[in-house]
Please model this.
Amino acid sequence: MRVAVIGAGYVGVVTAAGFAEFGNEVVCVDKIPEKVEMLRKGEIPFYEPGLQELVGKNLKEGRLVFTTDSPQAIRDSLVIFIAVGTPPRGDGSADLSYVEEVAREIAANLNEYKVVVTKSTVPVGTSLRIKEIINTHKNNNTGFDVASNPEFLREGSAVYDFMHPDRVVIGTDSDAAKAILRDLYRPLYLRETPFVFTDPKTSELIKYASNSFLAMKISFINEIANLCDALGADVHVVAKGMGLDGRIGPKFLHPGPGYGGSCFPKDTMALLRMAQEAGYHFHLVDSTVQVNQKQQEKAVEKVRQAVDGDLKGVVIGFLGLSFKPNTDDIRESPALYVARRLMEEGASLRVFDPAAMKNASQVLGDGCVYCKDSYHAAKGAKALVVATEWNQFRNLDLAKVKEVMNGKVIVDLRNVYEPEKAKSLGFRYVGMGRR
Ligand code: NAD
Model:
């Protein structure tokens, strides 16, 4: 099948390479020429484990091409996936200008029947809006169908998630589109991946409901952690005891400095906005967002307290800047938020992240020291803050860390260390809800 994927970001490149791996002829389009140039050479413009190998293999085998020529890509393809960004507007609603721009391009190049599929996360009603735009702008009688096919992959394990999704959701009112998409996803169908076929609006809402629910779970355990701090209980054991209940499940019960990334913050805000426009106040998601904002500030407060209330001039080793491990994505990163706030209060930061240094330096500027590894970051520091739970931070030689530090405080915002072990090495350990 000939497939076009418009937008070569985290979702677009993974989707394009994934469908090429399934044996389809895929053209992936981006409007940024430098990005396309890199991808043509098999270089990935962002950090995503396993993606370079998958792209390289499919480029070599001739099933995957990258281009800036969207008209040609659209004309040549039966299925067109829209995978462009839907960033938040000032009022929290999703900015659909990129999606709408692609819809107009599709209309202008509609030479034969096509299925137009939205992979971007878009508000309820967008598929129908896309249909309207194409109908308004097309200049012939060629038929087309629209479908919603939200993406659930996680950055950091995006390739695995594309190949092994928990489910594939397809929302369309067209039998033809349904049959074509089922065919496209056949390799997953054969693997007995659950498929949910529904109408476009329901499909679009499934994505927002899923992300908002996960965000809510994180805010919930963060509040439990705060309560543990106040009551002297251990959130790890609470989370374990809760998670063993099959109705609750163990995932997304890890406390920290709040959720971040390119999805949860914007999708919760967009759901709130959507609900508001529909005349409904979504109390739970509203609280989820508020708790998250407070949690980031709580993390700053933890560090402030750990250095006896005054951050001015205090040297802090700061580990982790990406919003989660295994990615260089710093969008809405709570780690970056905490780093910035500490700098604002006069702390002198020595930062290290295994992948996100370049991206973070564009935000943090030259007001901090960029270090070559964790031990370099800890050098001369009064306190060491762990803000993102990269595996390499879990396995630090804490005795060596203590040797190079000037103080003995660890503020473990991700609870990666055992408090007892840290204490036995002479550290003052501050975790999240860990007695
Ligand atoms: P991204 O910002 O990494 O990439 C979007 C790309 O689209 C950019 O490279 C941009 O240049 C390109 N683009 C914009 N307009 C274009 C046009 N008219 N023609 C060609 N290219 C164009 O975004 P992303 O993180 O891949 O997210 C894309 C969508 O998928 C968003 O709606 C997001 O919410 C959703 N999503 C993201 C993730 C994730 O983990 N990143 C997961 C699930 C869903």
